[in-house]
Sequence to fold (614 residues):
Amino acid sequence: MCGIVGYLGGRDVYDILIKGLHRLEYRGYDSAGVALETPEGKLNVYKAMGKVSNLEAFCRDKDLRASVGIAHTRWATHGEPSDNNAHPHYSEDGNLALVHNGTIENYKVLKDALMQHGVSFHTETDTEVLVQLIEYIKLTNGCTLIEAVREALGQVQGAYAIAVLEKGHPEQIVAARKSSPLVIGIGEDEFFLASDATPFVEYTKEAVYVKDDEIAVMRRGEPLRLLNLKNEETTVDVTELNLSISQLEKGGYPHFMLKEIFEQPATLHDCLRGRVVEHGRRIVLAGVMDNEDKFRAAKRIVIVACGTSWHAGLLGKYLIQELCHLPVEVEYASEFRYNNPVIGPDDIVIAISQSGETADTLAAIQIARQKGAFVYGISNVVGSSIPRETHSGTYIHVGPEIGVASTKAFTGQVLVLTLLALAVGHLRGTVSDQQVAELGGWILRLPTLVKEVLKLDKKIKHLSAIYTYARNFLYLGRGYNYPTALEGALKLKEISYIHAEGYPAAEMKHGPIALIDADMPSVIVAPSDHLYDKIVSNVQQVKARGGSIIAIVSKGDTEISKIADHVLEVPVVPECLTPIITSIPMQLLSYYIAINKGKDVDMPRNLAKSVTVE
Fold:
């Protein structure tokens, strides 16, 4: 859960590294560092606790001359955030500098063995173990850096993306990956290296996604080389990036999160493009069309995901069971991999991840494949690991999501799951042509309807001031809007650090109702649907106990509007589309409460965007 940047070429190395770290800071921001090798072969390492701006301040009076460099922004796994534990890490003799994303699971065994051979350690990190191991192998065997890296990685258990510099060799970067993302940009007589393509998108559109167990060798004046751990040359597959600088900038908004909330009309439109055709009468998903036999024969669907994607998965369960008449289970990927899942060839496993790199979800995919299931991926990042590891799938195409708290990716995932359920239901004969046309017409209107919801912005901003200093929140919903309530509570927790819990509204009376008083506000998601009368009773139960109520209702609501303290009206849509509409007011409420509390909404404490460790 860290960001790696590297550069080898004729540009200003330090400026490229720092700009790249700022672009990747959403991946980790408790410390940062750079390793710069001067043209004379001197290897300088500078690092600082805190955000990248702290590193910039530290480096102002340092020697920043370099012809090659690597850099890192950290989310701590081993060792507390500190200057000492920050990357890059030196080998004991100072000849190697290494940055690392991931977790070395057997670091303690390796460390004990190295200490028995006289190696000293100066940090609490697993990363220092790896750089010391590479140096030990290199010195003991008298081999090259590439050979030492290959030998060391053969002894490592866990996940890694690494980049290594060698003192006295300013013409080379050696990098490698396993279960952690790494992409190389190829320019004219230059190489870029990063955890994703955002640091170098303005310099080149040619990218190579390093595969698991591959070692990349970047040398000045030579083409890129890729080797596997058996020392065999592998194919260099160049991909053209479909990414623009404007997508990576705030565009006049104070924060990426607010920008991404307001981008949702456009991102939903992009997600729909080419998929809902003939004025809504036909759903076109290549991942389904290319695997019709699998979806026709499926006996069960299992959805695996984490965090916000898990909430989208819960909505996928409601959609698929209603439209496809198939049983669906939704599992936390982190639990699925350890609970001896009963999966077979008649099952379809749907794996959902915004980044496409979520470690637990990748592990769940591997288990599902081993057991013979057909695995379908839903991801946002083209070229990421999950699209490569699954049999088929669908991109949500909402563009880069920089804010750590997911907003537009959530609505994109829910929309793709809606299209998937419609397409599979039609394929299996459980959804008629007329149903496709009716729902397809509504789906095409979603971007415009979301624009209507965003007009609540000023009202929600004012409302947030009333609840900024609440210590607890309860989020309640029923049916399709129970998962939406869970997602609303998660957003508030993530960025404001206010304790919030989501519940099915009917479940409230089986325990949580004991918490309700004048100091416990409730956000109740209650659009017009077949459970509306039921949730009216739940609203009355909260009100009878003195609870303050913020209700999200459909336009024209007459009953809950009389009971609730505050009402946010959203457009009327079919029941299965309400989660996309009702989630947006909760995103805005969380945003403004966090801003009122002075929190960093784009980089909330202890969180990172791409969770590449277990």
About this structure: The longest strand covers residues 96-104. The domain at 3-246 is CATH 3.60.20.10 (Glutamine Phosphoribosylpyrophosphate, subunit 1, domain 1).
